[in-house]
Structure formats: structure tokens, C-alpha cells
Amino acid sequence: MAGTKKNLWFYSREQRAKRAYLHAHLATAARVKYSAALQRYKFDAPLLAAWSLTLTAVLIVSLTACGKVSNKPADVIQKENPAGMENSENSNGAAETEDGSGGVPAKTAVDEKIEKGEDIMYITVGDSVMTMKLADNASAEAFRGLAASGPFTVEMKEYGGFELMGALGERLPAADEQILAEPGDVMLYQGNSVTIFYGTNSWSYTRLGEIENMDQKKLVEIFGDGDVTVSFSLEE
To answer: DSSP for 134-156?
Structure first.
């Protein structure tokens, strides 16, 4: 019996020692595992933060590509494009208003003449309207440009019994040369005056054009009675 009790006591002590050892080992293992887990967490945290920033950037780019991100506040956008005021596009791609006009004024007959480069002007003295065929040069082109915004008038004075001359008020490009002017010729004199001939004269001029379908007798009746006011236009 005494031996049995001793053995029981021995095993009991041995068991207790083993239990103490196991407890100590488990505590040490727990500390090691906890430390390793903590180190792994410290290592992975920057990586997780980088992934988070990357995903955020991708999301922002995607929304921007879809046209759903705007730098302007909502109230500013609403003011810039209030309801009911949207513009539509016509078949040519130009923006137009609700009435379809597009805000572009219609072309006038004068605009069309200028675009087409028509070489006709009209000279009016009183009730007489004459057609003037323009010369093909820069001076005649500039002279026609004076009437682009509407008719203009020139106070013309009789000179020498064969011509009328009046100041234009501005200088036009000139290419003067010695010319024998004949009845119906319209000349630029010294770059700043227009001359209409109902007689003949030889001098240095730049040709602007000539009056069509008008003989000398008729020209004398219209221009040979002293000073007159002459209107030049692109329309009759």
C-alpha cells in the first residue's frame, strides 16, 4: 500500500510537472504567434492602403469617362443650361434656336452678289438708273466694297465740259496709266476721286468700269447740266 501511494504520488507530481510545462509552452507559443501576426499586419497595412487608393482612382476615372463627374457645382450647371432653353443641332451640325433660325441672319441680295463676285453696280441720278459694268481689277473691287453696306452718294462737280468728278472720302488702291477716256467711262482719279465721262479726255487714270447701253447724247442729258448728286449701289 505504501508503495502504491508513492507511485501514485510520483505520477501525480509528474503529471503536474507536465501540465506546468504544457502551460508554459502554450503561453510562449501564444506570444510568438501573436508577435508574428502583429508583424504580418504591420507588413500588409501599406499594401492594403495602396490597393485602396488604386481602386479609388480607377473608380474616379471610370465615372469621369462616363461623363458623370463635373468640377462645376450643380447650381452653376443649372444656370448655364436652364430647363427649356436647350439648343438643338440642325443637319449641318450648327446650333440653332427653338425657332430654327440658328441666330444667323438671312443673306441679302447684296450679300449674294458680293459672294458671287458679280461685276455690276448701279448709278442713279435723279430718276435715271444706269448699269455700270465693273473692271476686273483691285480698284473696282474696292469701289464695289464701298456699297457693301448700302448705297453711297458722291457730290460730283462738272469739269471741262466732258466729265464729272467727286471725292470718295477715302483712298482706294490705284494703278494709274495713261488712258483715253470715252463717254460712259468711270475712272478713279488720284486714288481718292471718281470721275464719270460724258465726253473724251486723255489722262492718267485707273479704270473702274463703264456705263452700259447709254450713248453720248443721253449721257450729256444726264451729266452735262452742271453739278449733280450721284448714288452708287449694288441693287437697283
So the answer is: EPSSHHHHHHHHTTTTS-EEEEE
